[in-house]
Amino acid sequence: MSVKVEVKLDVESMADFMIYHIYTSGAGMTALILGMLNVGLTIAFVMRRQFLLAAVFLLFVCLVFIVFPVFIRKKVVRQMQNSRRLEETVTYEFMEDGILTTTSEDSGKASWSKFKRAISRKQIIFLYDAQKRAIILPVSQLGDKYTEIVDMIFAHMPAPAVRIRRLDGKKGKVAGPRKEEDRKESDRKADVDEKATREPEEEKGPAE
User: Fold this and answer.
1) SS3 195
2) Partners of residue 115 on adjacent β-strands
3) In this structure, how many other beta carbons lie within 10 angstroms of the beta carbon of residue 162?
4) Which of 97, 116, 134, 154 is most exposed by smallest CB count within 10 Å?
5) What is the tens place of the pLDDT at every residue in 145-193?
6) What is the pTM (predicted TM-score) of this model?
């Protein structure tokens, strides 16, 4: 079984990816922690009616959670507007033994073991390898193949490495194995019921 999809990277998808990539790096996580601390300090100073200090810390909160993301997005948009990557169509084929990537100039295949994380955002799915290189899939371009691609990812990557929300809102492995377990459980119960119905008949003696 294989799933093939053609995508063309757009500015919004690249901007979403870069914001996530930056804010999950060491420096980005530090900034987020400091931002949360400043939210707490802002609330604390407001409760003490020290509004000037509260305004100072609120300004830092705005920088971390509003100004920086907007600045990053605008910078990515400017960089990507003249990029050849926006004009190039890339074909990804998800197979049992890996992912085949094909462009107009080159092609290559990576086994599933090369990918360390799979993550979904509102507009994109991306898969990281060990070198932090990523396959970026705009969700709007996947169409009805979204579920098939997600199922392939869940089936071939370790569950802790996959953070993708399904269309049904659930997280976890493919439904197939669960159905198999349910079938085995129902068969076991059927065997128990059959033995229970036979035991009273065996206990009866010969008719006089």
Assistant:
1) helix
2) 129
3) 21
4) 97
5) 999 999 999 999 998 999 987 765 554 444 344 444 443 444 454 454 4
6) 0.65
